[in-house]
Design a protein that fits this description.
Elements: E1 3-6, E2 10-12, E3 18-25, E4 34-39, E5 46-51, E6 58-60, E7 68-73, E8 78-83, E9 92-100, E10 103-106, E11 110-114
């Protein structure tokens, strides 16, 4: 069973930055594409970014392109989401995700609030 633990969330002013790590365990991390999702209050969960197993390819939602960067350290079983120039509309719970054995595995999420 895959286990994912996110951290790094908090309250930040517009224009600020946060870095979210997600530590994985219980599976061979380096074999899997990893994803970050977020869910804003009253909205559906949406995919923010993904990174391939070796880190060679990444992709982003249009709303975060040029501001967010996904990366991974396979030696540490960790995937990161660096978020710069944050906006109030980036507020939400951020989840780490991996799709294994036909099902989604989710972390517990970390709250990000962008407000002055």
């Amino acid at each position: 069973q895959g286990h994912l633990v996110e951290s790094g969330g908090g309250l930040v002013q517009p224009g600020g930055s946060l870095r979210l790590p997600c530590v994985a365990s219980g599976f061979t991390f380096s074999n899997y594409r990893m994803n970050w999702y977020r869910q804003a209050p009253g909205k559906e969960r949406e995919k923010v970014a993904h990174i391939t197993s070796n880190g060679g390819q990444t992709d982003y939602a249009d709303s975060v392109k040029g501001r967010f960067t996904i990366s991974r350290d396979n030696a540490k079983n960790t995937v990161y989401l660096q978020m710069n120039n944050l906006r109030p509309e980036d507020t939400g719970i951020y989840y780490c995700n991996v799709f294994r054995w036909g099902r989604d595995n989710w972390g517990q999420g970390t709250q990000v609030t962008v407000s002055s």
